[in-house]
Input
Amino acid sequence: MIVRQLSPWGPGWSMAPATVAQMRRDMASLMERLSGSTSDESIAGVFPPMNVSEDRDRYYLRALVPGVDAAQLNVSVVHQTIAVSGTRQSAEEPGVSYHRKERAEGAFSRSVTLPGAFDGARVEATYVDGVLTLTLPKPEAAKPRRVTVQTA
Amino acid sequence: MATDKVQGFPTRETRDLATATEATRPGVLLTPPVDIFEDANAITVLADMPGVESAHLKIDLHDGVLTITGHTTDREGSNEVPVAREYPAGTFQRSFTLSEAIDQEQIQATLKHGVLRLRLPKVERAKPRQITIQTG
Output
């Protein structure tokens, strides 16, 4: 952005350094506000953000789904894929005026495929403090097993 | 933009000018998304803070600035190896400047399913009041 300032020394334009710095700050803050930087959107840009980890016997999947009624949360597994879906009820009450609305609401659905197999019949799910935790036990055949090497 | 104020809650500019609050412990500092709405009696703030237990939630009111801080615990066991990570464990923090119209002693907070609900009641004089007009 170039600002035309009429300088007392004749026609032309000049920009005081302080003005440029202020414009840059204003522009940066405007871009931040428009991009919604105040929300903690995950890198993947999808909802809900998930962390998957594993140990020797199980996979663990943790999804951040705050503010959802457990009855509205659906988890289903098939083969190596886990599907999490649900609805976050709007907390809107009648007759209020909003100052800020940053929290997403509505229906969400996401499925992830794990790199290994798990036993679908023994999956457990808990929902505590807005975190959905799935424990997915690995079948025996998928666990690493030591093979002894025979020497002749 | 510098004068854009909404009911005393600060915009980004005033937050930058205020004393910078830095985390004293290492870790990611996250900003929880909030919904703020008001009715005739109170202003309500809803903040998403998943993974924060009520024991790790701190609500601090000092000099008219309300600060909500919540630590998330890393729920992974020590044996676990990450396969995919989309969100970090960290600390949620956000500050708000309260206008004098809030009755600070009557602030209520509830934490349910990782959502903090703050009810900031207005003082009596700030509530809208109908004035009946006498005739005759």
Remarks:
- Chain B has a mean pLDDT of 79.
